[in-house]
Amino acid sequence: MLPSLYYLVPVLGGYAVTSYYLLKNPHILHRRKRLPFHCRHISHRGGAGERIENTIEAFENAVANHTDLLELDCHLTKDGQVVVSHDGNLLRQTGHNVNICDIKYEELPHYREALEVTFFPGHMSTGRDHRMPLLEEVFQKFPEKPINIEIKRDCDELIKKVSDLVKKYHRAERTIWASTSDPVMKKCRPENPDMPFMFTPRRGIILLALYYTGLLPFVPLPESVVETYMPSIINRTYFPNNRLMRNRFLVRLQDKLMMRKGLFQHLQARGIQVYLWVLNQESDIQRAFDCGATGVMTDFPSKLHHFLQQYEGEQRALEPQEPAAEQESQHGY
């Protein structure tokens, strides 16, 4: 037993030291990803707390509040139109118990006068616009704005039509494939390989396993974006349908495992952006950025905009200032 330890301890020690060094210096093994956008302000469903979700009015409000990324969801109508809507069944959104895939676009009912904010129960959103837009309308209205598109159904036609629209409007580099389904993501990637894509939940679990075993610095990662919930919002503003996820012990465990600044810093050093959702309270937004998240996804674009103005001002104030004499020398005084 003891002789084997003489070999095992140095090997494990060398592995741990090498893993830690590469975790801090990932550029040694990996080329940094170069996304053409850097997102701190992300509007969930266009900002579902301030306007009716996924409407043109919501997207306009988000852009007016300096959002870096619009997050939206897509479905396919009976007549083959790619429509922007979170739910496939329209009962919650419109009061009509119909599926988008079963009716033509022109037959889609309008949104209710007011909708409860999914990630802020008890809060309602209203607006003048109650129409579900086509994805093509959004591309036409916001040609330069990065957009995160979640594919809500495993539908080959939907995936192909979204890809075709992205190609038509020459926006592959600034449009993100998003899905919580591995089979869907496996179809999205070859359909348009030029589009960046997110980690699915299964891939996120693998990411955590790689991090805690020390293997992460050695493994290539094809994804460009991590999009995940911040566990501490569960049972406060986020109530998962799976009761197991709401178990308080598991919530605390997830929080300990997932909210690791070292992990976020490593990913960002490799050019992988980390977005935490859906944060609607200032204390949660503050924590997300303090933990090293690249960006925050919110239902309240104006609230996040005002927070970032203050937060970034405070960060600049904390930066070391050059000595006055050196500043004068640089300016030729």
Automatic annotation (TrEMBL):
InterPro entries on file: GDPD-Related (IPR052271), GP_PDE_dom (IPR030395), PLC-like_Pdiesterase_TIM-brl (IPR017946)
GO biological process: glycerophospholipid catabolic process
Bilayer-spanning residue ranges: 6-23, 204-221
Entry's Gene Ontology molecular function annotations: phosphatidylcholine lysophospholipase activity; phosphoric diester hydrolase activity
Principal localisation: membrane
Cellular component, GO annotation: endoplasmic reticulum membrane
Catalytic activity reported: N-hexadecanoyl-1-(9Z-octadecenoyl)-sn-glycero-3-phosphoethanolamine + H2O = N-hexadecanoylethanolamine + 1-(9Z-octadecenoyl)-sn-glycero-3-phosphate + H(+); 1-O-(1Z-octadecenyl)-sn-glycero-3-phospho-N-hexadecanoyl-ethanolamine + H2O = 1-O-(1Z-octadecenyl)-sn-glycero-3-phosphate + N-hexadecanoylethanolamine + H(+); 1-O-hexadecyl-sn-glycero-3-phosphocholine + H2O = 1-O-hexadecyl-sn-glycero-3-phosphate + choline + H(+); N,1-di-(9Z-octadecenoyl)-sn-glycero-3-phosphoethanolamine + H2O = N-(9Z-octadecenoyl) ethanolamine + 1-(9Z-octadecenoyl)-sn-glycero-3-phosphate + H(+)
Domain of life (superkingdom): Eukaryota
Location within or outside the cell: Membrane
Keyword check for Hydrolase: yes
Residues annotated as domain GP-PDE: 39-308
SUPFAM superfamilies: PLC-like phosphodiesterases (SSF51695)
Keywords: Hydrolase, Lipid metabolism, Membrane, Transmembrane, Transmembrane helix
Family designation: Belongs to the glycerophosphoryl diester phosphodiesterase family.
The protein's name in its UniProt record: GP-PDE domain-containing protein
